[in-house]
Write a structure and sequence with these properties.
It is built from 13 helices and 14 strands. It is an alpha/beta fold and 368 residues long. It is globular. Bound molecules: flavin-adenine dinucleotide. It comes from Clostridium thailandense.
C-alpha cells in the first residue's frame, strides 16, 4: 500500500507511527528542513476538555503505544479577569514544548518513528495524488480543505506571542480574560522552564477588532502581565500569526484523501486547544488504512466536540468584563472552590462541560 503523509507535525507523525506499528511504511513529506522547525512554544492540555478521558498522556500510551513526556503537570491555573483573580488547583493537565526544542512533542514523536522523513519537500497535493494510493493531509491548517470545498471556516484569529525570561514555576500557568484590553479574546502565560515562558494574546478577527492596533493591545497586556506576575519580563523572541483558521471539514475523507489534525478541524474554537485531537486523528486515519476501524466513525465525537466548543466560544464572547469578574471571583469561593478543583482534576471522568452546554446555548440564544 502506497501512503503519502503531507506534514510531519503532531497528526502526521502520530499517523505514521501507528501505520508502522501495523506494518505499513508510509512516505512522509515535510516542507521544513527538520521536525518542529519553528518558534519554541509552551503549550498545554487540560483534562476537562478531553472527557470522558481522564488523563490524555496515559490514554495515548496505554491505548495506542504513543508515549509523550510533558514538561510538567499543571497543578495550578491562575485565571485573571479585569478586576479579579482566581485559581483552579490540583492536577488539571500538562504543559509541553512545541517547535525547535529536543523535547518538543513533535521531536519526541519523530524519535518513535522508523521511516525517514523527506524534508524540504516541495511536493504539491496533486502530485502526491498521482503517485500514491492514499494521501494524508496533515499540513496544520485548513487551506487544502478550503481549496477542495470541504471546509466550514467559523472564525479566524490574530495571535501574537513572545518568549519571555523571568522566574517561573513550571506547574503554574496563567490565563487572562480582559475584554477591555483584548476584546473577545484571551491571553496566557505558559512556562516551559523555570526561566522561560510564552506570553501570548489571541483574539478573533471580527470587524471591530480588525480596526484595533495590535501593538497597543500587546503593550497594554504586557504591562498587565508584568504587574500580575510582579516581574519585568524580558522578551527574547516574538511571533505573530494572522488569520489562524478555525473551522472543520465537512467530510473527513474524500476519495483517497484523509484530512487530519488542523486540516480536519481539530483546533477547538472555544479556547484554541488542538494537540490531543490532532494526535487522535493521526491514529484514527491509520486505523482506517489498516482496516481496523472506520475513520468516519472514529471522528464522530470530534465533530461533536468541535461544535460544542463553538458554543463555548459564542458564550465567552457574550460575556462582558463584569460577568467575567463575577465568574473568576467565584473560582475561589469557599462554597465552590473544592468542587471546581475536583471537576477539573485529571482523576475524574465527569463530563462537566457537556452538562453545562444547554445553559451556554440558552444564554447565547438570550443574547441573540
Ligand atoms: C500559538 C499557538 C498556541 C497553541 N497552543 C495550544 C495549546 O496550548 N494546547 C493545545 O492543545 N493546542 C494548542 N495549539 C494548537 C495545536 O498546536 C495544533 O492544533 C496542533 O499542532 C495541530 O497539529 P497538526 O498536526 O494539524 O499540525 P502541526 O503540528 O502544525 O504540523 C503541520 C506540519 O505540516 C508541515 N507542512 C505544512 N505545509 C506543508 C506542505 N505543503 N508540505 C509538507 N509539509 C507541510 C508543517 O511544516 C508542520 O511540520 C496552539 C496553536 C498555536 C498556533
Amino acid at each position: 500500500m502506497k501512503v503519502a503523509i503531507m506534514g510531519a507535525g503532531l497528526s502526521g507523525l502520530s499517523c505514521a507511527i501507528t501505520l508502522e506499528k501495523n506494518n505499513i511504511i508510509p512516505t512522509i513529506f515535510e516542507k521544513r528542513n527538520c521536525v518542529g522547525d519553528r518558534f519554541v512554544n509552551g503549550e498545554a492540555t487540560f483534562s476537562i476538555l478531553n472527557r470522558p478521558i481522564k488523563n490524555d498522556l496515559k490514554y495515548l500510551e496505554e491505548s495506542y503505544g504513543i508515549s509523550l513526556k510533558a514538561t510538567d503537570m499543571i497543578k495550578k491555573l491562575v485565571v485573571h479577569s479585569k478586576n479579579e483573580i482566581g485559581s483552579i488547583d490540583g492536577p488539571i493537565g500538562y504543559i509541553n514544548i512545541r517547535g525547535r526544542h529536543e523535547n518538543s512533542y513533535e521531536c519526541q514523536l519523530e524519535r518513535q518513528l522508523k521511516s525517514k522523513i523527506n524534508f524540504n519537500s516541495t511536493y504539491e497535493y496533486g502530485q502526491l495524488c498521482k503517485e500514491f494510493e492514499y494521501v494524508i493531509l496533515a499540513t496544520g491548517d485548513g487551506a487544502y480543505a478550503v481549496k477542495l470545498g470541504n471546509y466550514r471556516c467559523d472564525l479566524t484569529c490574530t495571535i501574537r506571542g513572545a518568549t519571555v525570561e523571568g522566574e517561573f514555576q513550571t506547574s503554574i500557568a496563567h490565563v487572562w480574560f480582559n475584554y477591555d484590553v483584548i476584546p473577545k479574546g484571551y491571553a496566557w502565560l505558559i512556562p516551559f522552564s523555570e526561566k522561560e515562558a510564552n506570553l501570548v494574546i489571541a483574539y478573533p478577527d471580527y470587524p471591530n477588532n480588525i480596526k484595533l492596533d495590535i501593538d497597543t493591545i500587546w503593550d497594554n497586556f504586557y504591562d498587565i502581565a508584568c504587574t500580575a506576575l510582579g516581574e519585568n519580563l524580558k522578551i527574547t523572541d516574538k511571533f505573530e500569526i494572522t488569520q489562524y483558521i478555525m473551522g472543520i471539514c465537512d467530510k473527513p475523507i474524500i476519495d483517497n484523501t484523509y484530512f487530519i489534525g488542523n486540516c480536519f478541524g481539530t483546533i477547538s474554537p472555544g479556547l484554541g486547544f488542538g494537540q490531543f485531537a490532532s494526535i487522535l486523528t493521526g491514529i484514527y486515519s491509520a486505523y482506517d488504512l489498516c482496516n481496523l476501524e472506520k475513520y468516519e466513525s472514529l471522528v464522530k465525537p470530534l465533530f461533536k466536540n468541535y461544535n460544542n466548543s463553538l458554543v463555548l466560544r459564542r458564550f465567552l464572547e457574550n460575556l462582558n468584563d463584569n460577568s467575567l469578574d463575577t465568574i473568576i471571583k467565584n473560582l475561589d469561593n469557599k462554597l465552590f472552590d473544592e468542587l471546581i478543583n475536583k471537576v477539573c482534576s485529571n482523576t475524574t471522568e465527569l463530563e462537566v462541560l457537556k452538562n453545562l452546554l444547554p445553559f451556554a446555548k440558552f444564554y447565547n440564544t438570550l443574547k441573540k
